[in-house]
Amino acid sequence: xxxxxxxHLQTLGVEPEVLVGICVERSIxxxxxxLGVLKAGGAYVPLDPDYxxxxxxxxxxDASVSVLLTKKATLAEKFSQYSKQIVCxxxxxxxxxxxxxxxxxxxxxxxxxxxxxYTSGSTGKPKGVAVTHKAVNRLVINTNYINLKxxxxxxxxxxxxxDAATFEIWGALLNGAKLVVITKDVxxxxxxxxxxxxxxxITVLFLTTALFNLLASVVPSAFDSVQHLLFxxxxxxxxxxxxxxxxxxxxxxxxxxxxxxxxxxxxWYLIQDVxxxxxxxxxxxxxxxxxxxxxxxxLQLVPVGVPGEIYIGGDGLARGYLNQPELTADKFIPxxxxxxKSKRLYKTGDLxxxxxxxxxxxxxxxxxxxxxxxxxxxxxxxESVLQTHPQVQQAVVIAREDVPGNKELVAYIVAKENSxxxxxxxxxxxxxxxxxxxxxxxxxLGILPLTPNGKVDRKALPAPDAExxxxxxxxxPRTAIEQQLTKIWSEVLNVFPVGITDNFFEIGGHSLLAVxxxxxxxxxxxxxLPLATLFQGSTIEQLAIILGSPSYKKIWSPLVPIQPNxxxxxxxxxxxxxxxxxxxxxLARCLGTEQPFYGLQAQGLDGETKPLESIEDIASQYxxxxxxxxxxxxxxxxxxxFGGQVAFEMAQQLLRLGHEVAIVAILDTFAPFANLNRxxxxxxxxxxxxxxxxxxxxxxxxxxxxQLSEEVLAFLSPEEQLNYVKQHLEVVGVLPPQTDIKIVRxxxxxFQTQCQIYYVPQNTYPTSIxxxxxxxxxxxxxxDSSERSFYSVLQDEAWGWNQFSNAPVEIYTVPGNHISMxxxxxxxxxxxxxxxxxxxxxxxxxx
Length: 847
Fold this sequence. Notes:
By secondary structure, the chain is of the alpha/beta class. Among the domains are: 108 residues, Rossmann fold (3-Layer(aba) Sandwich), CATH 3.40.50.980; 81 residues, Luciferase, domain 3 (Roll); 96 residues, GMP Synthetase, Chain A, domain 3 (2-Layer Sandwich); 202 residues, Rossmann fold, CATH 3.40.50.1820; 78 residues, no CATH class. 32% of the residues lie in helices and 19% in strands. Helix 15 packs across helix 18, helix 20 packs across helix 21 and helix 22 crosses helix 25. About 3% of the residues have low confidence.
């Protein structure tokens, strides 16, 4: 495939020194794209799909990219203004396959460009680091810090626009090893990550220091099966290293250091123990074909123990900064220790000193550049963006570490008017800069503190507290329940103080922390609340009312107000099999504060009520629930997976009742005759086999490996079987720790009931249905005669919905698969397209 793409790219003019942009998520297509560019002779410019559109456009313009590789959905969202040659690796693939699969004759030399990676720039714009083939070879071939072999399995955790991916991708492929993608969601879920390392047989792994510290604190034994674990990017906590060494150390634990300008790694240090009282871990000695010097301001070598600046030489040096000759000349200087004109040193701006054993110890920076979670950030770039706001008079950004191990960006603002809010500043940054450059706090000051010589006194800037996120008044807890909840929220969010009207999701909370929060509530209050409760009570004040109500169990409702406020008509969205409306949080947030959003969850999740057994009955119950909020139409309905068919039936029933339905949004759902649930028939199975299959389906929906052993379950009682399943669901994060067994029973009962439902619509829909299809469809390996009708629908772009609509189905493709289309990294596209559909159908206001 890479050869075919390379032949195609050559017809578009790609040759040595020609830059090709590539904006694709981690996938086979990404690797095909990178290989194809290099085989054609060109150099790739990796573009992160999560970057704001404005930043991507700036990078394309700065690099004069003549060809762009991407996917159709990404193209529509991010590159609608790009006017040069575009190749969609999904939509255009049929054209690409017409080219030869034969190898190409390469005219590339060692000093030709391999890639250009953009890093943060102090001038307010990113700068492109131009890296050659020689530099990449020096990183992973015939080196001294690691000996990669064909039998190795290398994990790819890094995005291709982060230079650690150079080690992961080319370290694996240039040595014949296996490359395994670890998704972002898994990497940030310690237990899931530990399972992946073991199941995939990972032998080589690189982690940013921040991720290493996180995993070491939660699952320090996760790395015992890894042969080579490398970590670096910022200062390391020796306590984390001790935990890993004590609880199952990898065969080799390496602390590595290196800027992008020296191609990922420059030095390495093999950690065998941590001396008592150690406060840092050395960065070690140079890797092969690399020279490192610690020099003073006159470019003289400093003695052992004396601080100086790190200068780097050798084959790993980048060519320089793309289209920035002055900056290149300033940072890449002639080597004073080598008379050859071709020999250069890179001036890093990093402070270090030699230790008595010859190793180097990193001390910090000499400028305002920082590293957070492995990303190099020029604080001046964030300050420049903030200064563009018309109400900002002065802006200063610093990195603080008020809590050990938790470094965060904080912005300090002097405003021209008192009306400026943190929300306005946050939205400005989100439009212009990557997510990792978004400050955690915005502190508004009347004046910035100054040193005696008139410069900003950064050390005197105050530490932020919970007030940084709070736009309204702080209200202290008033009751015993509120006091207990305040303590739990502060511990989970690490925010002090927390007011009872502070919104969990606005002061740092997210879905993973929500799981921890609800687990702590269960432990303290002995009440198993579903995660959806947090949407009903996203403040301490609201949640305290729910917990304090003796009739809480009686007020259960299928309607969950995920975002009840806003001036528009509400959007009602039905959850898929299992009824988890927490899944809709990111979608609701991305639709904006003016769009009310309600989720609909299945009866039976409490483990006490009986699940409904037909889509018609479920739809009828949901209609009664939504009419408590909106008595009359027009209604805006949607549903994901199984919920798509429920939403369709709700529309049918509302029409028969004389109501108007403005939209039926089907989110990645096949038409009823192609119902996936037909594949599963439980009538002839015993309870053990049924339990195994249901758990497997849950695993498919949540992208977890939940295959249980029938042999083990067969020897257990029904109650023991449920506990066995409960443990599996908790370990992989589908359920929070210490979940009540009746909640597990309810979840499984809902899944079992919904998987057996076969739905036959009574009428066609009078107007157009709106179908949102995930761009990644699972491949089908086997087809038997009973399932042929289902698989034939894969060839139908409308997935069978045209036969149930009197108008052509309106189809939109969105990034991700059946599950990840709702993930934070993908859902923005879905939200934008859904929002436009809703806006078209909103009734005119009376203004």
